[in-house]
From TrEMBL:
Signal sequence range: none
UniProt GO molecular function: ATP binding; ATP hydrolysis activity
ABC transporter domain location: 9-238
Keywords: ATP-binding, Nodulation, Nucleotide-binding, Transport
Coiled coil: none
Record's keyword annotation contains Transport: yes
Keyword Transcription: no
Organism: Cephaloticoccus capnophilus
Descriptive protein name: ABC transporter
InterPro entries: AAA+_ATPase (IPR003593), ABC_transporter-like_ATP-bd (IPR003439), ABC_transporter_ATP-binding (IPR050763), P-loop_NTPase (IPR027417)
CDD domains documented for this protein: ABC_DR_subfamily_A
Family, per entry: Belongs to the ABC transporter superfamily.
Length: 329
């Protein structure tokens, strides 16, 4: 395979142990170019360790990593140029002004002097930092400092950006700005972000990787994860009619449908029901038709999608259960 076509990142059987602790336990994944990958896991799962290895800041104990076809171990200098990295709690020089810092970092990253000025203007605009370009970094709020970190990571236009918890400690308005900023990189750069904020990941990422105790417990698009981890979908129905005939009426549409009453009928005879199916295709229209034909009056019918939070909890719970079983043996 030509380097030009190689995936942005390929990780094969990566392991990292710190004296007695296995922080990363045989993980493998591949990330196509131009995609945004969300890296999820509870505290101590091994996210930061993996990110530090990918960026060449921490050696792995074993395994292989290649970045755009370059081996991390034998071509470390090249790999570092391909990645913009924003570490967790990114340390920034307190006494420098924003534009001075970006200029300094740009020169270190070997951005030619001629193009550095216009590029700094571009990233200041992109990160909504123009107003603070002459401010001392130490006097900036947390949200602005995070954005200075992102501006620095994208400054030299590397093909890959890795950000460890870019929205941690930000208020909802600042989170929105950072989210839009990350989304604006889609297609232009390959991005890996770790986050605890699941709706963030759901809205921004093309692909999600969930790790727990150093192992990958689920990976795929948010949609694939819903299907593979949760494996069913719910419909919420509010209807009036003979409850003993509801199961039969719904069964005409989907034999596997499970029906559960939620609460008692109200004064007008309407009652809420939870319908659970293993089928992925939309059933709404068919259900409305069969319920109508069976004489039910329907006030509402809606499909409720499991959230990424449901997926995350189910996937990590499942892996805790497996570990508990291993310990019993
Ligand atoms: N320098 C170190 N020395 C020893 N153990 C470490 C070191 N750094 C991390 N660990 C351990 O490795 C494991 C993974 O830690 P890591 O920081 O990678 O997790 P994380 O998923 O990024 O967690 P968080 O979300 O809390 O930042 C943890 O058990 C942690 O205690």
């Amino acid at each position: 395979m030509e380097r030009g076509e190689a995936p942005a990142i390929e990780v094969h059987d990566l392991v990292k142990t710190y004296a007695g602790t296995t922080a990363v336990d045989h993980i493998s994944f591949s990330l196509p170019r131009g995609e945004i990958l969300g890296f999820l896991g509870p505290n101590g799962a091994g996210k930061s360790t993996t990110m530090r290895i990918l960026t060449g800041y921490l050696p792995a104990s074993s395994g292989r990593v290649s970045v755009c076809g370059h081996s991390l171990t034998s071509q470390l200098a090249e790999v570092k140029k391909l990645i913009g990295y924003m570490p967790e709690n990114n340390p920034l020089p307190e006494d420098m002004r924003v534009h001075e810092y970006l200029y300094f970092r740009g020169r270190l990253k070997e951005v030619p002097r001629r193009t550095l000025g216009p590029r700094i203007d571009e990233v200041l605009e992109l990160c909504d930092l123009k107003r603070v370009r002459h401010k001392i970094i130490g006097k900036l709020s947390k949200g602005f400092r995070q954005r200075v970190g992102i501006a620095e990571a994208i400054l030299a236009e590397p093909p890959i950006i890795i950000m460890d918890e870019p929205t941690i400690g930000l208020d909802p308005h600042q989170i929105l700005i950072v989210r839009d900023l990350i989304a604006s990189l889609r297609g232009r750069m390959t991005v890996i972000i770790s986050s605890h904020i699941l709706p963030e990941i759901e809205m921004t990422c093309d692909r999600v990787l969930i790790i727990n105790q150093g192992r990958i417990v689920a990976q795929g698009t948010p949609e694939e994860l819903r299907r593979s981890v949760i494996g069913h979908s719910h419909y919420e129905l509010e209807a009036a009619g003979d409850p003993s005939r509801l199961s039969e009426a719904c069964g005409a549409c989907d034999e596997s449908l499970q029906i559960e009453a939620r609460g008692e009928p109200d004064a007008t005879g309407f009652r809420r029901w939870l319908l659970t199916t293993k089928r992925e295709d939309p059933l709404g229209e068919g259900l409305l038709k069969t319920l109508g034909e069976a004489g039910f009056r329907v006030r509402s019918l809606s499909r409720s999608q499991p959230t990424l939070e449901d997926v995350f909890l189910a996937a990590t719970r499942r892996s805790w259960d497996v570990t508990a079983e291993d310990l019993k043996r």
